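Following up on my earlier message about 1-O-phosphono-alpha-D-glucopyranose. Here are the inputs again, as you asked, copied directly from the submission form:
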Amino acid sequence: MTQLDTVILPIAGNGSRMRPATDAIAKELLPIYDTPLLQFALEEAVDAGARRIVLVTRDDKPGIPEYIDKLRARPGGLLDGVEVVFADQPEPLGLGHAVLCARGDALPGAVGVILPDDLILGAPALAEMCGVYDPASMSCLIAAQKVDPAEVGSYGIFDPEGAESLSGLLPARGLIEKPAPEDAPSHYAAVGRYILSDAIWDVLEQTRPGAGDEIQLTDAIAALGGISGFRFSGCRFDCGNKEGWFAATERFRRTKFEAEAMAAE
Ligand code: G1P
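Thanks, got it. Here's what our run produced:
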């Protein structure tokens, strides 16, 4: 079981697809039923063994430091023994750039990355990935999900070497950011959980803007190689848009009520 000392949460985005809810509140603090989106990501990072969580954000992102302070103030709480540090992403230059902004705060060794927008309910996905990450044979392990062929242009898409293994691993020759449907090598999409060897840092430094004129994490991963997808067992919701948010809220509420009903039996 790989221990991830550092988990990076890129959260500098402005949540434009969630307006007007995000006009004065950070998207990561909007609740899924009763729980802010950020809380799920923090819990998943802690489940994966994080000793340090790096929040890559902007100076003017409201409420996030206050939320962390509240969590820290709770004795016996989630963040006991876990450091939370803030790294600034002054300009929105892409996900690769956001991750690179955390370089100076990362502890030695492989790092985890969680994109909080990609909410995964069920088994904690990053911890599941720690169970299968093999540093001897992989540089990058990335959560993978099959998507509708019409949706490939919204994701990083795997170029698999063969079929997925019984343990859910999908070794890949490459990863392509937001291809046109006719150029997509598969329908396996990267979703927002990554384990990256520390060799990623030098590659990210060299990565030039790609799709959308942004510095893409996908391009750095493709350049580094040693890529494997992982078919996680939880259920993923895209909480970067309103419909995904609503679906996640319904599912989380139902799961919560079912758990309470079972506990009461
Ligand atoms: C980012 C990544 C993309 C990945 C996606 C998962 O895209 O660049 O490779 O498939 O997250 O949600 P974004 O959604 O930020 O455009």
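One observation from looking it over: Residues 95, 115, 118, 155-156, 177, 189-192, 216-218 surround 1-O-phosphono-alpha-D-glucopyranose (CB under 6 Å). Hope that helps, and feel free to reply on this thread.
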